[in-house]
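Section 5: illustrative case.
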């Protein structure tokens, strides 16, 4: 059954890729659009999309994690290629953590585990966003002498994150406390 599903998934992916290349050859407007939009980073995004399609069609939800990472990194590369802000890698790497969170969210969602998707995926994404804002503000302001994203208020984000980390456990599921009382007589041993 597994080899059959894998064969179907690979077949669908080959049909999609072949269909794209065939369409680009015979539809001039599509080729012009692809040339104007599809810079080299879009190949990374496209590879991520193939992984995502394989995750959905093939029932291999775990492929959503590398799919999200590839698409996210492709998006970062696309932005940097367009703007020339390659120094942003000093803090953009923190977004990769969020891409993992998106992948975990999608993985659990495809398995029908909505609550787990929210708890695991959103926490990872939130951590990534906070790290990105703190690192980007710090590097832009103090290293690159550029305007920071949060202005002078970036330390408030650290304070809010610290409070969240202290308060969050109070709202989590409480694990039952199990106590075992062994009252043994010396004679029973």
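Designed sequence:
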């Amino acid at each position: 059954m597994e080899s059959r599903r894998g064969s179907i998934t690979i077949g669908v992916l080959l049909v999609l890729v072949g269909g794209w290349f065939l369409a680009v050859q015979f539809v001039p407007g599509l080729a012009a659009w692809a040339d104007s939009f599809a810079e080299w980073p879009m190949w990374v995004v496209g590879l991520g999309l193939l992984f995502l399609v394989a995750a959905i069609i093939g029932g291999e939800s775990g492929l959503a994690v590398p799919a999200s990472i590839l698409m996210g990194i492709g998006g970062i590369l696309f932005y940097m290629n367009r703007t020339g802000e390659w120094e942003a890698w000093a803090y953009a790497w923190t977004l990769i953590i969020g891409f993992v969170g998106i992948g975990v969210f999608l993985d659990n969602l495809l398995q029908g585990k909505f609550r787990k998707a929210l708890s695991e995926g959103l926490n990872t994404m939130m951590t990534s966003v906070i790290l990105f804002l703190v690192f980007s503000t710090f590097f832009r302001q103090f290293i690159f002498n550029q305007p920071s994203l949060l202005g002078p208020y970036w330390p408030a984000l650290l304070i809010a994150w610290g409070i969240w980390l202290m308060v969050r456990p109070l709202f989590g599921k409480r694990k039952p406390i199990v106590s075992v009382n062994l009252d043994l007589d010396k004679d029973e041993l």
